[in-house]
Amino acid sequence: MVNLTNVAKARLSPTLTRKADDVIGRKGFGRKNLQDHDVPYIERMPLALRNTVSLKSTKDRNKACFEQMMKVISCMSKYEQNQSMCSKEISDLETCYKNFKVRQQELKKIKDSGAVPIGRNVKLSGEQMNKYMQKFPQSTRKGQNNPDSSYIGMAKFK
Predict the structure, then answer these.
(1) Local confidence band at 120 (pLDDT 50, 70, 90 cut-offs)
(2) Mean predicted lDDT score pLDDT of the chain
(3) Distance CA 126, CA 123 (A)
(4) Per-residue exposure over 112-142, b if at least 16 CB sit within 10 Å of its own CB, e if not
(5) What is the pTM of this model?
(6) Whether the Cβ atoms of residue 18 and residue 104 lie closer than 8 Å to each other
């Protein structure tokens, strides 16, 4: 009787050397892509929208005075950190930042007032959207699952 090490046993194991069923008889390497029509849809919960949206951060993606800041940085590197040579760019950055702070204060006042803005192209925060959606509830969805018995008659999902 021959005593094999664990590594040799794993190499000789038929399950490790066997190809997967979808690769057998196929030319080329690897598996083919899985098509959308081959994936069955199983309804785990009834399709319904929730009456709330998540309260993720809705910060502005554009940073405050980014272009002006980059101009100041390039000017400072050009003149070896000498601020007197970049006074125009620095003053532009300061005025831009003051305007930005004023705009931020206005937006904060509107948000704190609780008023929902009206119009065609309005961007609502998560809190404003929840407040608006409370006026028109769509579903009583509580997160319930369908029992497995509701899928018994479906041959496609066996």
Answers:
(1) confident
(2) 77
(3) 10
(4) eeeeeeeeeeeeebeebbeeebeeeeeeeee
(5) 0.46
(6) no
